[in-house]
Amino acid sequence: xxxxxxxxxxxxxxxxxxxxxxxxxxxxxxxxxxxxxxxxxxxxxxxxxxxxxxxxxxxxxxxxxxxxxxxxxxxxxxxxxxxxxxxxxxxxxxxxxxxxxxxxxxxxxxxxxxxxxxxxxxxxxxxxxxxxxxxxxxxxxxxxxxxxxxxxxxxxxxxxxxxxxxxxxxxxxxxxxxxxxxxxxxxxxxxxxxxxxxxxxxxxxxxxxxxxxxxxxxxxxxxxxxxxxxxxxxxxxxxxxxxxxxxxxxxxxxxxxxxxxxxxxxxxxxxxxxxxxxxxxxxxxxxxxxxxxxxxxxxxxxxxxxxxxxxxxxxxxxxxxx
Length: 322
Known about the structure:
The chain is an alpha+beta fold. It folds into two domains: 38-189, no CATH class; 192-321, no CATH class. It has helices spanning 3-28, 38-41, 56-60, 64-71, 74-86, 90-93, 124-133, 171-182, 192-201, 212-215, 223-227, 256-277, 281-289, 307-321; strands spanning 50-54, 94-101, 115-120, 137-141, 144-150, 155-162, 165-169, 206-211, 232-241, 245-253, 291-295, 298-305. Strand 9 and strand 10 (245-253) form a beta hairpin. Helix 1 packs parallel to helix 5 (74-86) and helix 4 packs parallel to helix 14. The relative contact order is 0.16.
């Protein structure tokens, strides 16, 4: 199968994988980087460009976990770095995570005010101690104890907003989350268009909703192809994880004509992929599962990333790393 066609086929799966990895990789690298509950959404500021959720416990207990590690081995080192900085072990301590970003996530920078909202079991004394060792100070904000460190190299803060509920991010992000929860600033829940998309995808093990221009730079598709797509306002993705990944990617186009044009573009790529991938059993299984649907301004792509396809990807990744 041609390299560009293979990239296109895996782009949708890549969006869902990014849901699980984006926030963790960004924070651990030193950069800012079931369904969730209404209380979690209440902490998300109104200017968020991307919100992503993962049921970490279900992912960790699934056969998909090992294959995900094989596909993205760098995340193992990232997780170790995150624990060293915060005292939080994702696999042991976290049950679910909601990640929100107010900036572009293609290249995380300190101006990208990302926020991590996690449910789990946290050793508050140990976590605060590690933060203090790095120069953190403790302050009170809206009745919560905020542990924050800000210097030329770091801008990070955390607070325990409730039993088993941790907010972690840049100092401004954590304070903005507390403002939104208190009703002192508008939260993302007031955005009816955004919330309609959340309600459409939030039954997945993992899901994300984002302004398309905030995530376009992270797309597995070459930039030239992204720039030639019809106008897209929103991108939503959801996935149910067991031994594989059962996914859906939904694009909200600017208007119905743009949606029809986008459907035709995607259909063209799928036709080419089926022609070139018919001799590859792993990819053929995925291609046979793909369904494309367009209604109004929405274009949805459904697919299954089976264990056979994941094994093929792992083997391909091993060859490239040699």
